[in-house]
Each structure stands twice: as C-alpha cells, then as structure tokens.
## 1
Amino acid sequence: MKIKRDAFHAIADPTRRGIIEMLTQQPLHLNAIAENFDVSRQAVSLHVKVLQECGLIVIKKQGRERYCEAQLDKLNEVSDWVAQQKQFWTVKFNALDTYLNKIQTNEK
C-alpha cells in the first residue's frame, strides 16, 4: 500500500525542511546535499524521495549527476491552511477577549 504524501508530510521532518531550504538557493546533486547533514547518504536519499513524491522537488539528470531542484508551489497548501487557521482562531480569541472584558466590567 502506497502512502499518500503531501506538503505537510514533507515539512514535518527537520532534515527535509533543511533540504528544501538548501535547494531554494540553488539546485544540488545528492552528494552535495548529504554533505550538510549528519545522517547517511541513504537516509538523505530517502528524504529526497519523500520530497519528490510530495512534489516539492524535481530531479533532473545532467550527465551522470542527478540534480535536485526546488519546486515549491505545493507549499501554498500549507500557507493557505495556516491563513485559514489564523483567521479562525483570531475570531475565536477576539470573542473570548470580548466575553472576558464583559465579565470583568460586570464584576466592577
């Protein structure tokens, strides 16, 4: 059974977030990415595979090397969700603040 992966899954791991951050600067091959982490090259390869499955990076072949390139459109899912949650909770906290101020005024 194949696990459905999305941008939320991709950014849940600090190593994957680090890889994304690196790739926003420039495309890199797997060895260059792996040099920046204290995990095995195989572990970095698995993280890269997850990022690719989530649609956050593409891998392009140049000669013998495979270069990873950031493709961050899928992160819009995350920013949209965060904006919706922020709006929802802002309304709730404002209502709570109004209620608490009303109670406090009535006690005086």
## 2
Amino acid sequence: MPDLLIRKADASDLPEIMEIEKASFTLPWSRGSFKYELMHKEALFKAAVSNGKILGYICARVIIDTVHILNLAVRPEIRRTGIGGALLQHALEEFKKSAQGVNFVILEVRESNTPAIRLYEKFGFNIMHKRRHYYQLPDEDAVVMGKDLRNAGENP
C-alpha cells in the first residue's frame, strides 16, 4: 500500500481501533485498556493509516527488559496485504533504536492462527513453548514466540 502511514495512535483513533479490535478478537480489549496504553510511557502504540482511515494497529510495551507485543490487528477485509508486516517491522525498528538494554521480543498467538504464526516466523520469531488454555471463547492454547533482537538480521 503506497500511501500507508504508520504513526503514533491517539485518543481520536480509538473508535476505529475498537471497531478493528471487535472484528478481530472474541474477547476484545476494552476502550480503557487502549487508553491506558496511550498514557503508558513504556508503550508503543501505532496506527497504520491510509486516506485518513485506520487500517490496523500495534501495541507493544517494554516490560522490565523485554518487549511484549500485546496486540496487533488489521481490518479483516484487508488482511494479508502487508499491513500487519509493516506494523510489526516498524515496531521492531523502533524498539531496536530506542529501548536500550532490551534485547528480546515476546508475544502470544492463538495456536490455530496459522497466518499470524507464519508472519511472525517471517520476521524471525521462533516458537518457544505453549501456554495451555490461555485463550477463551473458544478455549485454546497460546503459542509463545520470541525473537532475539541482538542476533536479528534485517527484517523482510
């Protein structure tokens, strides 16, 4: 998408972000959870925008010495068009530049979400282990994936 802009999310983006969130997850985050991330100094909360419309977002945060990707979603009708990858690449580059002493990134993904697992693998994430019964509605295990930023080659 040639006119894709990835920028810091703000409170005015929350209606569209909530729309994407509700379309993407069976137990969506609350508006309050997103507001908290907007205010948190260790958070990275970015929106992918094209022609004034939010197409996706990523929310990640440094927790002690590790980046935790908390949430990544793209509008269902435009998934697999590179937006999720652009958001992920942007976040990884931001943390490599700004988070001194942070060398590892971790995330959880539904075991059945093969497209997301493939995306993360494309960016050098490896499966570390599973968390049993991590997700609800439906009950499902999480695949925990991680990436060492120190040994990371350039992203795709």
## 3
Amino acid sequence: MRVLVSALQVGPGQTGVGRFARDLIESLSKLPASLRRPREHEFVIAAPHPEAFGFLDGVEGFTVVPIPLLREDSWGRMLCLHTTIPRLGTRLAVDLVLVPNYIAPLWGSFATAVVVHDLTFVRFPETMPPLKRLYYRWMVGRSMRRADLVFVTTETMAREVVGYEPSALYKLRRMPGGASTSFLDPGGEEGEDESAGWKTPRHDFLFVGTLEPRKNLERLLVAHGRLCRFDPEFPGLKIVGGRGWEDEGIRRAMRAHPDPSRLHILGYLDEEELRRQYDESLALLFPSLYEGFGLPVLEAMARGCPVLSSRGIATAELVGDAALLVDPLDLGELEWAMRRLATDSALRERLRTAGRLRLRAFRWERGARLTMEALLGWWTARQEDPR
C-alpha cells in the first residue's frame, strides 16, 4: 500500500490544521514497525515546506517529496490540491491520497481519504468568507462521497458529519488527535515530579486562536472589559493568534476596552513561545462558538493551564469535567466564570489536576494507531475485493 499524504498546511505560520497534519505524520512514523510494516506499506509526504519534516530523515517507509505553491495562501494551496497533488499521485501510482483538511482531489486514478474537522460552513456560515464558504459547500460533500475513508476527530463531529452526508456512515473512522509532543509536560502523569512549567508563577488570562468571529473573542473582550472597569486589579488578557477574516468587530472591541493597558496583543507565536505563554497564564479562555476539536484546550491542559471553554461543542467532549464550561453567548456567565478563575486558587488547582488526568485519553499515539488500523483494514478489504 502506498499512501500519499497532503501536507499543504504544514509550514511557517501554520494554524491548527497544519499542526494536526504534522503531528499525524510524526506519530505514524513512530508506530512500531510491526504495525506499519514499512517494507510493505509506504507513506509519501507531499510538502511545500519539506524542512518541517526533518524528523523523517532515515525513517523507513516514509519519503518526503517537495512540491511548489504558486501562492502562500489558502487559494494557492487549493490550486495545488487539485492540480499538483493528483498529478503526483498518478505519477507515483499511489493507492490512496490522504488529505487532512476537508477536501480531497476529485479526480485521479487512486482512492481518497479525507479528514473533516468541522462543519463551520454549515453551522456558522456567516463566520467564513463568502468565497471560501461557497467552495466548501460545493466540495466537502462531494469529497466525502468519493472518499473510501472519512476521518473525524470526535464523536461530536461523527454525528454532525453523518447528519450532513449520510453516505459517510459506513466509511467513517476516528482519528482522535492530541496535544503535540512538544507541549507534553514530563511532570504531567503518574504523580511524577512537576516540571518547571508547572512551577512557573502564573498571571493574566490567555486566549489562543485566529482572530475571527467564530472564536467569540469580541464577546470575551466585552466581558473582560466589564470586569476591569470595576476591579483595577483584575488580571489582564493576552491574545495569541494571527488575523483572520472579518476581524473589525474584534478590533473595535479592543479599542473600546476600558483599560487597554491590560490587553496584550501578541500575534502569532511559534511553539516555544506559545508553550511559555501557557506556562505563565492563570487560565486559557476559549469560549468558541463552534469547534470540531479545539487543539488549544489540550495544549493548555498539557502545560498545567486551567481551561474555560463552551458547552455544547466538541471541546466539551475533549475536556469532560476538566474545564469550566459556559454558555458562550451569555456575557454574564462569561464574567462569572472569569471572576471565579481569577479569585479561586482551589478551583484552578483542581482543573490543573483534572486536565492532567484527562489528557491521557488524547495522545497522538492512540490517534496514529487507529489511523493505521483503518488504512490497513481498507487495504485488506480492497485486496479481497478490488472493485
């Protein structure tokens, strides 16, 4: 079995999907040879930024093929997906093209597998740029119908995907991700001594995410501003993330904040600096309107940072009882939860401990193993019935 993995989102400035794709590939490469059987099965990584895959040097069964992008943006990657990737797959005679980002090529003499992270374009279409929304509406369902395998990261998304595209039911497989290994704290399990990250003094709240409407940052800024107005000692808010689509409302809320000195706009951070921010923050505030997974909450739990998130979305499935959950539309509840986190050290310690335990269910080793088992199951069935 030869599998071509599209790594178009992996590279400088990558967000959640890019890190997901890189972690998936790294975790597959670390599976025991007895499971991935490198002499029988090969993974070819199509990478615009091959330097991101130095960890594959010398790993049997993995090959990195550099590919060009005409533009370093979502439209450049889209064009590459539907031109370069299928041509490469055909030239290399691959059996399957695996795309970790919603949409697989709709043409080519190979089977396809696709990861559907969320259905934002259906659930919250107003939070996406119009052209991107139309593209996803046109392509995601078609991609799932053509695919031999459809991967989802959570049970929440499994239900949503089947509701949206019933044909996906019998080819649906779980690919539960996890925090990147670089975020895992060696003091995070089995009562080991706490590492430096767990002993670092903590101050200020932290938000991590692209600055776009779906992340609910505008409402979070309003709630934080109200608390700062009546409490001059209330913790500040650090905002990490690159600019997204339609962020003027967020910029307006920043300008209207009663004490801008307590807002720290940090922009996009590399992983080392992001780890430091988790280590130094009182809590991660992640009251998103909608998520299919929610990587920042796992990263925060890995670093011993308490979490506030939203009820009714996939992050609630991830955190269980290891986070403070709120109605993301209720300003009063947001304020109440932030005040509790700021003043209740016992609550923060309970969430830190619960997060450490909860994280055991979300390790990339498990996600890679389930992915490999799904691929091998598909390959066996194909050999038995090549139709």
## 4
Amino acid sequence: MEENKIAYFSNTDFSLYNFRLGLMREMKKRGFRIYACAAKGDYTKELKKEFVFKEFPLKRSIDFLGRDLIYFFRVFSFCRKEKPDICHNFTVKPCIFATLAQNMAGVRQIYCSITGSGYAFKKEGVLKRIVVFLYKKSLKRAKRVIFQNPEDMEEFIALNIVKKEKTKLIRGSGVDTDRFSLKNVDREKKEELEKEINYSKEKITITLISRLLWQKGIKEFVEAAEILKKRRDNLHFLLAGPVDRENPSGIPEKKIREWEERGLVKYLGERKDVREVLSLTDIFVFPSYYREGVPKILLEAGAMGLPLVVADISGCREVVKHGVSGFLVEPKKAADLAEKIEILIRDKNLRENFGRESRKTVEKEFGEERVVKETIKTYNLAE
C-alpha cells in the first residue's frame, strides 16, 4: 500500500518546530510520511530526527525575479517528484509562491494558514497592493484558508482575496499546557538564568519576548521601563528574542546595547526555551501593533500563569480578557502601558488572580490538542 504524504511549508525551520510540531507528530501517528519544508537553521537537526526535512532557502523580502522565482521552481520540482497528497503552507511567501507551485504541480489538497497579515498590511501603499494581488492569485487555489483571528479573516473576505465559504477560523497554533507549566521548568537552567540576570525576589520582573521589530512595541516597552524606573528602584525589565536583520522594521543591535548601557532593560538574546525566563517573570508584556495572528508567546506566558499586559489589537485581544486575565492598552502609548504595569506592580493579589485566569483561558481555549484536532478535521473535508 502506497504511503500517504503531507508536506508542511514555512519560511523557517523555527516556525515549523515551534508552532507545528504537535500537528506534524499527530499526522505521523496517523500513518503519513511527513515532509518539513523550510529554510535550514538552528532547528533543522531536531526536525530531521522525526521527519523528512527538505531545505527551501527563502528570504522574506520581495524578490520576484531572483530568489522567489527559484523558490517557486524548487517547490514545483519537489511536488512533481514526491507527489504529496496534502500541502499545508504557513507564513506569507509559502502561502503565495508555494501554493502557486503546488497547484501547477498537480497537488489537489492545498491548505494555507494566515498567521497574521504582518508588515505588508500595516498601512495602505504599493506593498500592500502587491501582496493583496498575489494572495488573490494564490489563495483561490487552496482547498481551505485557515485564519487565527476573525479580524484578519473578515479583512481578507472584504478585500475579495478569499471567498467566505473557503475560510476557517482556528484561533492560534496552540500550546502544550503540560510543558508550559511551572512544574516543568528545569531547575538547573533556572538557577543559571538567575545568576545571569542577577535575579532578586525583592524585585518585580517585567518581561517582553518577541522578534526585535519596532512594530512589536519594543520602543514602547523600553519607554515604559524608563517611566517606571524613575518612580521605583525595585523593577527588573527583561527583553528576549532574535534580532531580525531581514525585516525593514528590525531594531539595530546598537540600539539594544544603548538601552542596556542606560540600565533600562536586560537583553537575554534569543532563547530556544523560554520557560526559565517566564518562570522568573511577574508580569508579561506584549505591546505589539504588528498585524498578529494569535501570538504563541502570549499563550505560553498565559499557560505559565502570568498576568498579561498587551496592546489592544487583533490576535492579542483573543487571548487577554481585560480586567480578568490582564490589561489591554492603547497601541503605541508608552504612558498607558506604564500605567497598567504599575497597577500590577502595586497589587500582588491582582497579579496572582490575573495569572490564574490566564492559565484557565489558555487551557480551555488554546490547548495544542484542540488546535491539532480542528486542523485535521479541516483536512478531512477534502474530497
């Protein structure tokens, strides 16, 4: 009997490993041969242990006549040779160029997940018009288009990018709530981190973990730190995440060093496992005004029982119930961010209550098992 095959395409191996691992494992259990298709990186070795990894170099910047065209033909060649029964694409370029290539190669079941509309949809202009045009051409070839929040879905329908009957809402990529819990934090790694950051229980630790892009609200986080540190000396602000040199909104490393030298934040770099950082955190902050899907880091922080202070935007407001599990703040307003953080600094009981509610919300609505089941149900709709 011929083996069924499913290929997962994303821009990075990090994306597949951190956001799709549970889904790929479940499909493997169901007898599928799994292809993990992405650019090679730090997570390739881990993916190769469980799946067939196929390298597809990809740059996020638009390059129609160069790398994007090469990427298109590589995907086309792969699909003609391996003949996957299902292709599931994540992130912008795979949803556009891989979808077109898969369709041309004769793949019948193509699924696309819109994990946030991202940089191109931030404002009206030439870039947005180009991306909308490309999405219209590609997504009509998909069997289903999956969205993580209703606002993105409604915008894509309103722009006539995709027909409503082809859409499905599955909120977030899910989180393993057993793994992301205080009982599953490595004690030795936690102690090492405590020494690295000069941790003190006497201080309130406020953390932001994100790609280092201006639109992720990093500047507002630092400004809030500056406001609050003038008022209090018992605060510790932690910043973690990768520097994104490809993105035009990437924050220069020089600027990060400057913030550290001024004593505003402690930068921890990129962390493969954020559980130790979250376990030392009292308040988790995510002031992004980027067009998010449902940020997984919010689900991870919520699963760890943390109060959340986030920008009031699509994706973030799916996770945080204002005044119940955290606070929603006005995007790009450092003063509002500082005000809400300070409320939690003053009130330990409120922090604990919000944290319990965060954990409950994630367990009930964003558990990985539920997301995986809903996604596989979508596959079963295929003819």
